[in-house]
Amino acid sequence: SIRAALHPTKTDALYFVGKGDGTHYFSANLNEHNNAVRKYQIK
Questions:
Q1: What integer pLDDT is reported at residue 33 of this predicted model?
Q2: Which of 1, 15, 38, 43 could pair with 27 in a Cys bridge, judged by C-beta atoms 3.0 to 4.6 Å apart?
Q3: In the chain, where are the structural domains located?
Q4: Cα separation of 33 and 39, whole Å?
Q5: How far is residue 5 from each of residues 1, 12, 30, 41, measured CA to CA in Å?
Q6: Which CATH architecture has domain 2-40?
């Protein structure tokens, strides 16, 4: 985790949401994030 903090991966992702299966969905903008929240979190 220290290595990741010192050398973060280059990405456009600013948001993430847990998919409920132990994985995550990463989004570059708020609209995409809100769609992912509706898809994966709101049931």
A1: 98
A2: 15
A3: 2-40
A4: 10
A5: 6, 16, 24, 28
A6: 2-Layer Sandwich (3.30)
The pLDDT of residue 28 is 97
Which residue shows structure tokens 């948001």? 15
- Give the span between the Cα atoms of 27 and 12, in whole angstroms: 8
Give pLDDT tens digits for 8-27. 899 999 999 999 999 999 99
Give the ranges where 1-43 is alpha helix by DSSP (H): 2-6, 30-40
| 14-38: b (≥16 Cβ within 10 Å) or e | eeebeeeeeeebebeeeeebeebee
Q: Output the pLDDT for position 26.
A: 97
